[in-house]
Design brief:
Elements lengths: L23 H4 L3 H13 L2 H13 L1 E6 L9 E2 L5 E5 L8 H4 L3 E6 H9 L4 E6 L6 E4 H9 L10
Parallel strand pairs: 3-5
Antiparallel strand pairs: 1-4, 2-3, 5-6
């Protein structure tokens, strides 16, 4: 999978990790998702993973679609596995790459449905050009089983 060497700096979270404070504001620009991804990569604890997966589940991601056909671009790893690229924020998209596509915001569930609609796609590559996190279908299923912290009354 193509990855850049430099990523966008991640700001420190200002909110305690508390379900009662998990709000739209925390998710609006993708910075919390980046923060939680960085924090998990540093600490590798179950608690960090739970928060990261819950944030992904409730996030709106950016998916590059071809302008006329609205088909998604795909990325491929060194083993030939294909993934739907999705980005936590526009700053994670290289400018020359982003100029070629319609950058379409999608809730995570819509990203999953799009990835599942293509038989040759094995998952979602989150931020594939910076600090990539690969979500293959088995991990996606685990994410979908997590109750929403953003909308606690919805499944």
């Amino acid at each position: 999978m193509m990855m850049a060497t430099a990523g966008t700096p991640v700001r420190e979270v200002r909110f305690p990790m508390d379900d009662k404070l998990y709000t739209e504001k925390m998710l609006q620009d993708g910075s919390e998702l980046l923060y939680l991804k960085k924090r998990f990569n540093e600490k590798k604890t179950k608690e960090q993973l739970d928060w990261l997966l819950a944030c992904i589940r409730d996030s709106t991601l950016i998916v590059p679609l071809l302008p006329i056909s609205h088909k998604p671009d795909l990325c491929e790893d060194d083993d030939g596995k294909r993934y739907l690229p999705a980005f936590s924020q526009t700053q994670q998209i290289p400018p020359d790459y982003g100029e070629e596509f319609d950058l379409t915001p999608m809730v995570f569930l819509s990203c999953v449905e799009l990835a599942r609609s293509m038989s040759d796609v094995v998952g979602i590559a989150l931020d594939p050009f910076t600090d990539v996190m690969v979500l293959e279908h088995d991990l996606i299923e685990a994410v979908l089983r997590i109750p929403s912290r953003r909308f606690p009354d919805k499944k």
